[in-house]
Design a protein that fits this description.
Largest sheet: 2 strands, antiparallel
Number of strands: 2
Strand content: 5-15%
Radius of gyration: 16 Å
Shape: elongated
Helix content: under 10%
Strand order of the largest sheet: 1-2
Number of helices: 0
Order of helices and strands: EE
Distance between the termini: 16 Å
Structural class: little secondary structure
Length: 46
């Protein structure tokens, strides 16, 4: 956790993803990350 320029608490956490193919992974295997289209809205804590 950290604070932004205005002193608000910023929580950083992982988020689940979609797995398109299962199997064993190895060091050096490529990983593709695709963001959804904007706007990107921060999630509320649960």
């Amino acid at each position: 956790m950290l604070r932004d320029e205005e002193g608000r608490l910023v929580r950083k956490a992982g988020i689940m993803g979609v797995v398109r193919q299962g199997g064993t992974i190895h060091p050096g295997d490529p990983i593709a990350v695709t963001l959804p289209p904007p706007p990107h809205i921060p999630l509320d804590r649960v």
